[in-house]
Write a structure and sequence with these properties.
Elements: H1 2-35, H2 40-51, H3 61-65, H4 67-85, H5 88-94, H6 96-100, H7 104-121, H8 125-135, H9 140-153, H10 161-187, H11 194-227, H12 234-254, H13 263-276, H14 280-307, H15 312-339, H16 347-356, H17 362-367, H18 370-373, H19 379-408
């Protein structure tokens, strides 16, 4: 009995020590990068890589086991803040481009992989499709915080540019993950199922619908208490909204295998509906509260994304991986340009949209190792490509957005 108590206590100390490393070193490296005029997420990603199990191994195994859940919690916080900042009228102004940006760039990138990966690596077209699905997702972890910041700064907001990118990046992941699941099944010999492809629109529609209903009910509850002069404190509102968001994610897991629902889209839709049906003062206070939560969540998100990157696979990738990445990003760029036809964006604004759709991190860290774990022959190669894409495009996209927004987007203040 005393030994079990000791090990339990020692395990807790190890977890707390790991969290201390995540926050203290992650923040320090982020600050150093800012001093060097680099995005702070680069410092946080590097912290994760160095502290993670593939280099120094200073992060406790228990932290790494729950890393996907912690990263998703951090994403929930920034998506709530994003939803509270969105205005549907801005998305309507963008029109069809907002819809096309949700899937066309990813589909074009997957097509590029299917065409060229067999020539470069000698893999089958089905394995190339699996690789394309891993590479095809833009990273909401990198993109969403920057779009929220641009909306607060009112950069390009009159044309709805950050709003469009924010919405597209959130739905892009739903499309890619469903396609990835379908392609992996086909690579294992399960064949293609039309029902699996139907999961894409079903997941989006049900996610948005569930979020809208939840947000509307929360707004009515807060307003009812306000009318009765029994106002809910802003801190309590924050906790209630966060709890509702976690429940929406849980619904996605509860219904998995029966009905497809996008939990992350539901979270952002809930926040958007909440902002539409509450007084502006309440929305502003909630934005501030979630902005403060994001200060801690950001460190956890990017350090743990970095810790999930197995840099050993970068050595196996070789020059072929770099060539394939350039080709896939070129196809992605074509997808963005096609999506923006008829949008009336200037050349500068279009260029910014291309840059904003470059970063890869969150999804690649989450699913990059799945083909290897499932025993697919292309598993090593897919993981190598996922690692290379994170290490190159996450910093490239972050630096590109931070360095160019002031020159490429109009100041709408």
């Amino acid at each position: 009995m005393p030994n079990s108590v000791f090990f339990c206590g020692q395990g807790l100390i190890d977890v707390l020590t790991s969290l201390a490393f995540v926050f203290l070193i992650g923040l320090s490296m982020g600050a150093i990068c800012q001093k060097l005029r680099l995005p702070k997420i680069i410092g946080m990603l590097l912290t994760g890589v160095i502290l993670g199990p593939y280099v120094l191994g200073l992060l406790d195994e228990k932290i790494m086991n729950i890393s996907p859940e912690l990263r998703k919690m951090a994403l929930v916080i920034i998506l709530i803040k994003a939803g509270l900042s969105l205005d549907l009228r801005d998305l309507k102004r963008v029109g069809h481009s907002a819809v096309l940006m949700a899937f066309l760039p990813a589909v074009c990138e997957i097509a590029g992989c299917v065409l060229f990966a067999p020539l470069i690596f000698g893999v089958s077209h089905m394995e190339a499709a699996v690789m394309g699905a891993v590479l095809g997702a833009v990273s909401p972890a990198v993109v969403v915080p920057r779009m929220v910041q641009l909306m607060e700064m009112q950069r390009g907001t009159k044309k709805g540019i950050p709003q469009m990118i924010l919405g597209g990046a959130s739905m892009d992941d739903v499309v890619v993950i469903v396609l990835f699941t379908t392609f992996v099944g086909m690579a294992q010999g399960d064949g293609v199922h039309a029902a699996a492809l139907l999961d894409i629109p079903v997941s989006i529609v049900l996610g948005v619908g569930l979020g809208v209903l939840t947000g509307f009910l929360l707004a009515k509850f807060f307003q009812h208490r306000y009318d009765k002069h029994e106002m809910v404190r802003n801190s309590n509102k924050t906790i209630i909204v966060l709890g509702a968001a976690f429940l929406l994610l849980a619904v996605e897991d509860w219904l998995k295998g029966r009905v497809a629902v996008s939990g992350l889209l539901a979270v952002m839709s809930m926040a958007l509906m909440l902002a539409m049906h509450t007084v502006p003062e309440v929305t502003q206070r909630l934005q501030e509260k979630f902005g403060k939560l994001w200060l801690a969540a950001e460190v956890v998100l990017f350090v743990l994304v970095g810790a999930a990157v197995d840099i050993r696979y970068t050595l196996q990738a070789g020059l072929g991986a770099l060539l394939m990445l350039v080709i896939s990003l070129s196809f992605r760029t074509v997808g963005v340009l096609l999506s923006l036809i008829g949008s009336k964006f200037t050349v500068k604004e279009t260029l910014f949209c291309v840059i904003a759709y470059l970063p890869k991190a969150t999804v690649q860290a989450a699913i990059g190792a799945v083909p290897l774990a499932m025993g697919l022959p292309c598993g090593d190669l897919v993981l190598s490509m996922a690692v290379v894409s994170i290490l190159i495009t996450a910093p490239l996209g972050a630096i590109g957005m931070d360095a160019t927004y002031s020159r490429l987007l109009t100041n709408d203040k």
